[in-house]
Amino acid sequence: MVGEIDLRSDTVTTPTEHMRDAMRNAIVGDDVMGEDPTVNRLEEIAASLFGKEAALFVGSGTMANQIAVLTFCSYGDQIIVHEQSHIYNLEVGGLASTCGVQTRAIPAPGGNYDLERLEREIYRADIQRAPTTLICLENTFDLNRGLVVHPLQTHSVAEIARKYEIKTHLDGARVLNAAVALKKPVSDLCCDVDSVALCLSKSLACPVGSLLMGSAEFINKAKRMRQRLGGGWRQAGILAAAGIVAFEEMIDRLADDHANARRLASGLLEQGFDIDLDQVQTNIVHIGLYTLNLDAMAFAKQIADFGIRVKVIGERELRMVAHKDISSEDVETVLTIIKNQLETRNS
Ligand SMILES: *Cc1c(COP(=O)(O)O)cnc(C)c1O
Prior knowledge:
By secondary structure, this protein is an alpha/beta fold. Helices cover 42% and strands 16% of the residues. The chain has helices at 17-25, 37-50, 61-72, 86-89, 94-97, 115-121, 151-163, 175-182, 186-190, 216-228, 237-249, 254-270, 296-304, 328-346; strands spanning 5-6, 54-58, 78-82, 102-106, 132-138, 167-171, 195-199, 210-214, 284-288, 308-309, 311-314, 317-321. α3 (61-72) crosses α10. The radius of gyration is 21 Å and the shape is globular. Bound molecules: pyridoxal-5'-phosphate. The site of pyridoxal-5'-phosphate has 13 residues, from α3.
């Protein structure tokens, strides 16, 4: 019997001791008045790391995405999104209800738009058509796979957007994982987009928070949209302090998560699970149980009895996510337990 090994998501990560110390000691003020020095510092660090003029600290990735759309778009505009994206599928219809935009969701395998198709989907306003005003990207793409989108795709999409004088927003909840996987500065992955959102509360292990980056003008307006959504907060420096530690200490270690995910994937592949190693690019492993003919729910329950928690994403599909609270020893433990369970089943 082992302690719990929770592979459901990197959102389960808890703050480090350094974060807790920084939070305890943070100098704070009223952030709605722009007077929280720790928030201001976090926003400066983020803007500089991402190569943007300014940043805004917000409550969640969902809020960051919705604020970006509210800031760029007018009521009734059309925006283009990946049909499998988080912003389209997992934000409770916020694009329609909160932002009042019409979404045109198109396929983008691996997070890559077909550029000719994309261009055809852009509408100019006329007597019948709503104008397209924003194109959304996601990197890493697909929260059950964590695929790296190459900066060239982002560049090409942004080029098309500029041609039609429309904006681009990158949902970069895990874009630092993409940057570490590509061994490139994160600014290379977002230099072409008008805004980018980052989650601090996933693989970076902060308790709460996301950042939205863009031009100074964009962030000024975004701040008012955050306020409208009830997202203005006061002594938020308590939370921002953890974000500063994350930028200082938690980025380089993402490579360890990626190595753990690969080790997990190759071990499971050997055991007969359906895994495409080419798609294990960051910290997420997408696992098929088709060949083994296992029911995902039942299998998840079986290994949960041994303290291993995974996310069921389909009748015969699971996902496992490596993160800072999963050690390489944990990975070996997981592989051993699963191997034993499969053998028990076959005997
Ligand atoms: C997690 C996630 C979000 C939303 O972040 P929350 O902080 O959970 O609201 C948005 N986009 C992507 C791609 C994500 O993985």
